Amino acid sequence: MTLAIHGGTPVRTTPWPAWPPPLDDAQRKLVTDVLDSGLWGATQGGSACADLTAAFARLSGVRYGVAVGNATLGLFAALRGLGVGPGDEVIVPAYTFVASATSVLLAGAVPVIVDVDPVDLHLTGAVVEAAVTGRTAAVMPVHLAGSPADMDDINAVAVRHGLKVVEDAAQAHGASYKGRPVGGLGDAGVYSFQASKAMTAGEGGLIVCRDEADHEAIWSVCNLGRKLGGQWYGHPNVGWNLRLTEIQAALLLPWLDRLDSEIARRNAFVAEVERGLAAIGLPEGYEGGARQPVSVVPQPPGTTLDSRHLLMLRVHVPYDRAFFLEAMAAEGVPLDGGYPPLGTMAALTEAGARPEPCPATEAASREVVWMRQSMLMDDPAHASHLVEALTKVLHA
């Protein structure tokens, strides 16, 4: 069978679902109401931002929330509000988006970049334990691709060493760990509403936390150093204007009503992918130990619900990565090459980040590819397109 990249017929010729999806009626009405009100800023007396923070706090199993301009600022504000600053170290995983590290630099602290579990690609308590020094102030587990990190494991190390825990839940809206929602499992959790996320307003973020004093400190960081409930021109702390707008909150609030059904749809698609991958035969002449050429990266221990922001796939057989990605795109099934290891980014190390050896992350950067969230929103029956394209390309 001739590959599409060599002139053959592509597996798929129809477009994948667009993201974000079209506005629903509830979004359209609430956005219009906010626009008509003229109360577009979060401090003008509207209710959308307040309603959104309250809803996300409930979603995360905690009492407090602060809506912010984006999740990078949210991670920065959470760290600063929890007392992390110059001279401190924050442990972050190497297989994550660059903002996990740059938010630490923005807070004036040092990102200590450590390896991830070689199987599920998440941060582990054992790796955190090995990286703790006398300067370590916090750890930032990342709920990668919508699956929760093993938080009991990480929290136990944090308690033992007196560390703050800031969950990077940017990709994990609605995910849960041992029956508990992510975001509320550490001292603070941060969600993203950037354009690719499961809930999006184009940009935006939200911090959740359980402790009232932590909430007041984080709120102050995001509101120009004001005291919650204090005078408008009183600024007892140093802070910044990091607020979300009412218009963005109006786009997001109605989304909460359909979040569960969208997560279920993505998981149904992934279930079909897993069934199909198990049936792909190994390439002719392959003599390695893999049972199948491609598999879904497994969920970490304790996962109750994976929100499936991304589908991470590991290729177990030798392949030309650049050609593979190009050939899959030609078949109408574009895949993403995923993250490079954070520790290989010169800009981070030049700014003060300290990378540890990360062999598991380096392997993931060679072997793991992603299927984007919008593709997972397709009819689960169309998971066969991914399986057919993988079979065609890997057997070519």
Topology record:
Blueprint: H1 25-37, H2 48-59, E1 64-68, H3 71-81, E2 89-93, H4 99-106, E3 110-114, H5 125-131, E4 136-139, H6 151-161, E5 164-168, E6 176-177, E7 180-181, E8 188-192, E9 205-209, H7 212-222, H8 246-252, H9 259-277, E10 294-296, E11 303-305, E12 311-315, H10 321-330, H11 346-350, E13 354-355, H12 359-367, E14 368-371, H13 373-376, H14 383-394
Parallel strand pairs: 2-3, 2-4, 3-13, 4-5, 5-8
Antiparallel strand pairs: 1-9, 6-7, 6-11, 8-9, 10-12, 12-14
Helix pairs in contact: 1-8, 2-8, 3-4, 3-7, 5-6, 9-14
Structure in words:
Helix 2 (48-59) packs across helix 8 (246-252). This protein has two domains: 25-257, Type I PLP-dependent aspartate aminotransferase-like (Major domain) (Aspartate Aminotransferase, domain 2, 3-Layer(aba) Sandwich); 258-394, Alpha-Beta Complex (Aspartate Aminotransferase, domain 1). The chain has helices at 25-37, 48-59, 71-81, 99-106, 125-131, 151-161, 212-222, 246-252, 259-277, 321-330, 346-350, 359-367, 373-376, 383-394; strands at 64-68, 89-93, 110-114, 136-139, 164-168, 176-177, 180-181, 188-192, 205-209, 294-296, 303-305, 311-315, 354-355, 368-371. The chain has an eight-stranded mixed β-sheet, sandwiched between helices. Strands 7-6-11 form a three-stranded antiparallel β-sheet, with no helix packed on it. Strand 2 (89-93), helix 4 and strand 3 form a beta-alpha-beta unit. The protein contains 14 helices and 14 strands. The N and C termini lie close together (8 Å). With 396 residues, it is α/β, with parallel strands linked by helices. The model has no long low-confidence stretch (mean pLDDT 97).
